[in-house]
TrEMBL record:
SMART domains: Brix. Residues 319-344 have a biased composition (Acidic residues). This is Brix domain-containing protein. Residues 306-318 have a biased composition (Basic and acidic residues). Pfam families: Brix. It comes from the Eukaryota. Transmembrane segments: none annotated. Residues 304-344 are annotated as: Disordered. Residues 33-294 form the Brix domain. It comes from Hevea brasiliensis (Para rubber tree).
Amino acid sequence: MARFRSKKRKISVKPVVKKNQGNVDHVTGDKIPKSFVFSREKLPGPLKQLQMDLRKLMLPYTALNLREKKRNNLRDFLNVSGPMGVTHFLILSKTETASYLRVARTPQGPTLTFKIHEYSTAQDVAQSQLRPRCPQDLFKNPPLIVLSGFGSGEQHLKLTTIMFQNIFPAIDINTVKLASCQRVVLLNYNKDTKLIDFRHYSIRLQPVGVSRRIRKFVQNHQVPDLRSLQDVSDFVTKAGYGSESEADDEAATVTLASDLGRVNRASTKSAVKLQEIGPRMTLQLIKVEEGLCSGSVIYSEYGIVGDKKKQEDNQKNQEEDEDNQDDDDDDLEKNKEDDGEESD
């Protein structure tokens, strides 16, 4: 007899994926800010490189390979920003006299316009250093943001503070992992010159009291060359490497709460080292608009046009009133003279 076997169907259950799961931080629950960095026109070579450096700085929550076309306008970028969860635009532009950077919140603004007085690309910064350091895994996590000198209480400085604080993801100091804090963006405002120094650094931690040779041996996992040494102890105690370590500033040392790598251990002191990786800019806030690259002007470094016109109209009306008052005084004196002649 033929035997018939019943074939059991395998049931596959698809995992339920929440929509926009990538737009929300799984730790803090806040919406992760994302950005587009693009230009409104054709840029010269150095400024084009600055645009790529800004895209790299905004990683991982930006479109690194964003393609632009001549026919694209601001509305095109705005239409795709909503479905992709993009919250900010960084727009570079160039005129005959200066270069500009606009930082805008989508979809309704506000927009901050900065004049770029000076800038250096990441390549320029690396060429000026003896040992440049910029590993690729440095950009797996967003940078920290540090603002200095913006606490004067003026409205346009408050808006600048809020804009740059919200352009990067917020961190929870109770749950943040030290390994994710590898970069920092520093903005320093000079109230005398009204200029903002924009800097981008990498963060390194080095154990205090450990020689450079031992530290490199532990980090690189390579067997050192001991052929020229009589004993292994010579490797540790050799002059220039043994008991000394790089100069450590007491103010720049921290005590780690958890292990970080193979060298930096918990409850030990480590020196914080900052190395600039670029780009570098000197900015000046010249205008704040209420909308997305449009709308009423909240602040202008050169004065608001509406206020100037209103002031000129008031001054003109005041001058006309003074002229009318002078004419009335002249008529009154003339009438008094006529009355005096008639009485004579």
